[in-house]
Amino acid sequence: MQPAYPVRVIRSNRKTIGATVSDGVLQLRVPMRADEAAIAKFLSDYDKQIRRLLQSDAEARARTVRYRGETGEYLPWQGGFLYLLRADCARTERLADTLCVPLSCADPLGAIRRWMQRNALAPLSARLRELSAATGLTYTGELRLFCAKNRFGTCDADKRIRLNYKLACLPADIADYVIVHELAHTIRLDHSPRFWEIVARFCPDYKSLRKRLLQAQAYLSEL
User: Fold this and answer.
1) pLDDT at 170 over 60
2) Rounded to two decimals, what is the model's pTM?
3) Which of 16, 70, 81, 144 has the highest local Cβ count within 10 Å?
């Protein structure tokens, strides 16, 4: 089976297979006589470790990347990453851990944003309902999404909540913090000590999560 990530095989006079990741590409250094079956077995046996290497590499590059929507980039998505691939396809679609963008698309980044907006509503709506039930903090109406560079959620006096669709790009614990933050505004429409007491009741480590959210803004602002 073809792996869902790019692989470069480098043959050398060594006895075992070794793996490193550079710029999103898994580089395998293999013995001169290693056949395809041996390489496939290595990829299967060490799949979890390889994916951790790929994710660590993607996280490091995501802090400085300027997204263009081209092959080789990684899109952060629900705590993981999707490999971006410009391909001969009819529409932007996800295939396993790969997000395929049509080669014919003149604005690939715009196509990716539209895909994100379409696919963010369901999981964010579900999580808002779950956290509302868990905390007892109720909101009104249906969740609506918006796009902004430096704001991830809003709650008005009528307890209507709106979330930035880019929350779907974040790890679950950070996204949960933002949702709890907005649910707390259904009780207090300010950032008073009482408000933060409500947040802390349901999200005790909110201070560290706020710091991680600020760090994430740097690369999410490019999307």
Assistant:
1) yes
2) 0.72
3) 81
